[in-house]
Amino acid sequence: MPQQDNGYGSGWPPLSPVMIFRVGSRRYGLPAGLVVRECMPVPELMPVAVALPHISGWFRLGTAMVVVIDLGVLLGERTQAVRRPVDLLYCPLLLCNLPGGGSVALLVDAVCEVTRGRPAPVAPDTGDGDMAGDVGRELELGDDGIAFMLRMTDIINDDERMRLDTLMERTRARATLWAAIDAPQPDLPADGQGGGHS
Fold first, then answer.
1. 3-state per-residue secondary structure call for 58-105
2. Tens digits of per-residue pLDDT, 54-87?
3. 110: which residues sit within 8 A by CB, 6+ positions away?
4. CB–CB of 136/149 below 8 Å?
5. How many alpha carbons fall within 13 Å on the CB side of residue 175?
């Protein structure tokens, strides 16, 4: 079947839906559906076993433990992740699929829209080692603004995924330990010596 003109006159194939969000003063995009599963308010977060500058905490989603990454730290907008409940009150989370399985939640400053933005004209190669592919590709939005496309593999690469898995294992072990300590203990006899009943 001949390729349909997408109406943009750019030669690009039609784009999949893109979630547009803001971090700092810039807008970014991630594929909606395949990557971004849901936009949600921040639930009560629990601390991870080791505090890291870009981790706000974690929460349970069914039986899974989902780590919350402050995208503002990774993109250089702030030096420490937002953690105080009062500061998280109006911050949205993007619940995202990770390559190879699993989920992560990205803390962003605002969610703008889901769109099928138009690729902006490609700038000439400057030779400064820009990443190939869609990363940094600009999307023209309906309000004549620009959003910069991101990929999950560039937000969380293989090394970071291994560090996160190790961190969450330690956090899971700590949560199990605390749950065992908090569990009700069997009743002891009144004399507290644990002897059998006569």
1. EEEECCEEEEEEEHHHHCCCCCCCCCCHHHHCCCEEEEEECCCCCEEE
2. 999 999 998 888 999 999 999 999 999 999 999 9
3. 21, 22, 92
4. yes
5. 15
